[in-house]
Amino acid sequence: MTTLRAAKYFQAFREDEPLLARFRGSTDLIAYFHGDGDLDDKDRLYAALVRLAQGQHCSARLAHALLRYGMWPGLDHVYRRHLQQFGTDSAELTEAISVAFTTVVGRMDLSRVHRVAATLVRSTQRETTDEWRRATRERARVAGSIGPMVASRAGAQGDSGDGQPTGLSFAGELAVLRSRLDSIVGVDAGLVLAVLVLDYDQHEVATQLGLSYDASRKRFQRALVRIRNRLRGAASAPQRRSPSTSG
After folding, report:
1. Is 167 a residue whose pLDDT tops 50?
2. Fewer CB near the terminus (10 Å): N or C of the chain?
3. Roughly how many angstroms between the first and final C-alpha of the chain, as a whole number?
């Protein structure tokens, strides 16, 4: 919002939407949104930004940004409520809200909306919840599909393992590893095992799971980030000192 291009776009906004003419730039508008002011006036400004965001010009991106920052308290409420209710991964939830908000803005019919700000928040909340439920069902389907892949490759590997006397077969060690990964990445544990341990190609995994390659790759990368964060946390945690014994 502070680039020269954004400043140029905002000047064009002032000409296209007379309601914005009294603001010198983006920061003035955001300050007004977050300060005291007439709610009806703010709602009319939000409507103007929705019209601009629905346009085909590249400046629509700035209008989206202004809407997001203006409505930040409401979107933050959606985030906190959803995180508390569903225990969703924070990074995934942030992206889901972003996509939901963009979708809601794009399809909003201003002629049928009485309160723009309230409608944006409520619709974003509903869209995010619906997407979470769809994603949950999809993950359950994927979890059911990844199991046979892991079992098939584990059987092909046999029980040779890595030569360490653990007392477990290769399949048994996989089961232990998966149970540990489950607590970190949930149903994506099988995806991580298939790619990193069993050496499946990511394109092959995506095909077997009925996912696009991009969707499979994104989920795999997110899982890796969560695993790395858990390992960093464990490494930085203070170690308990064993009680010393005296003779």
Report:
1. yes
2. C
3. 70
Contact 97, 79 (CB under 8 A): yes
- Who contacts 101 (Cβ-Cβ below 8 Å, separation ≥6)? 67, 68, 75, 120, 124
The single-letter code of the amino acid at 245 is T
Tell which residue, 18, 15, 47, has the closest CA to residue 120.
47
Mean pLDDT of 131-143: 68
For the segment 76-110, what is each residue's pLDDT rounded down to a tens digit?
999 998 888 776 667 778 888 998 999 999 999 99
Model pTM greater than 0.70? no
Tell me the two tokens of residue 209.
């799971």
Task: Write down the pLDDT at residue 163.
Answer: 47
CA quadruple 73, 78, 83, 85: dihedral positive or negative?
positive
Q: With contact defined as beta carbons under 8 Å apart, do 163 and 195 qualify? A: no
